[in-house]
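Researcher: Before we compare anything, I want clean individual predictions. No alignment, no superposition, just each chain on its own. First chain goes here; please echo the sequence and then give the C-alpha cells.
Model: Echoing the first chain and its structure:
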Amino acid sequence: MNRKTSHAGSHQENLAQALGVMAAAALLTATTGALAQNEPTPGASEPHAYNWQLERTEGPCKSYSSAVAGKEYVAAKAVCDVPARIEVVGTILHDIAGFPSWMADCKETKVLKVEDDEKDTIVFWLHQHIPILRDRDMVLRSTVTVDYAKNLNLIEARSTEDIQYDSGKKLFRMPSFYAQYRLEWIDREHTRVTYLIDPDLGPGLPTGISNMNIRKIPLRSMQGMIKVAADKKYVEAAKTSKYARWVEEALKQGFLK
C-alpha cells in the first residue's frame, strides 16, 4: 500500500508493511502502551470533522454514528477490544476472499489487481447486500499512511474508477465509499480495532432505512471479526506470516511494548 513514513529505518518500514494489511475497507494504528477504555483515540486521522455520538455498547464493542456535512447518509464506526494478537487481525484483513465469512452484508469479493504485494496495495471489488433495497457494489483501492512521530498507521479504502469492472450482476455501483481500519496495540494478546465507514449509497433511497442499516454494519462486522479471530486457520497462518516477524522485530526495537 502507498505509505508516507516520517520515521527512518528499515525496521520501521517493515513494521509499516506488516501492519499495512487491508482489503474492503480499512485503518490501523499501533500505539505503545495499553489503553484502559475502548473510546476513539483523540486526534486520530479521519477524513471529516465527524461529531460522533455513542449509539450502543455491546460487550467489548462500542458503536458510534455521525452526520456528514453535505450528505444525506451518516457515517458509522465501531471500536472493539479484540482478544487476538495484532498479526492475527492483520492476517484476517489480508484475506480478502474471506471477508464474506465475517463482514456484515458482504456477499462476495474479488481481487482485481495487486499493485504492490510488499506494501499490500490492492484494488478489489466488493458486493454489498442492502436489506430490502437493491444490492450495491464498489471497486476500492486500499492504501496505508504511516507517521511514527504520531504513532499513526492508517489503512484506508476509497472508491476508484482506475479499474473498470462489471460483475454481470444487477447491482448498483455506489457513487462513493470510504472506509478505515485502525489497530491499536493493547498488549501482546489484545488489539483495539476501529472500523469506520462513510458511504454514499446513491439517490432515491429512503434515508431513514438506509442510515439505520449503515449504523449497524461496523458493529456487526467487528462482532464477526472477533469470532473468526479465534479460528485456527487465522491463528496458525499468523504465526508464520511476515506480519508476525515484523511485529516481533518491532517489539525488540521498542516500538511496541
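Researcher: Okay. Second chain, same rules.
Model: Second chain and its structure:
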Amino acid sequence: GKSFTQNSYLTRHRLTHTGEKPFTCSDCGKSFSQISGLTQPHFPHTGEKAFTCPDCGKSFTQNSYLTRHRLTHTGEKPFTCPDCGKSFGMISTLRIHYRIHTREKLFPCA
C-alpha cells in the first residue's frame, strides 16, 4: 500500500477508501472530505471571482489562486531543491519532489 510522510496525509488518504465527507457547509449543505472545503470559499455561494489577472483577464475566487496563476505568465520558479537544484513554482511541489531525495514515507496505508 501507499506510505505517507505525515500522519495527517494518511488520515486524508483513508477518506478516499471510505468516501466519507465529514465536513458540511451550514449555508449550502455541501459536504467535503477535508476541512479546507469549509475554510476556503466554495462558490456558488456568491459566485464572485474578485481577483483578476492583469495579464490575461482570468478571474479567481481567492488572491492566493491568482498569485499562483501569475507564475504561469512569468515562468518564475522561486522554490529550489537544495539537493539537486531543480526549481518549482509552488513550495508544495518542492516538498513532494524532495521526498525523492529523502525517500521518506513514514505512514503506510494498510
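Researcher: What stands out in the second chain?
Model: The chain has one domain: 3-108. Additionally, The first strand starts at residue 3 and ends at 4.
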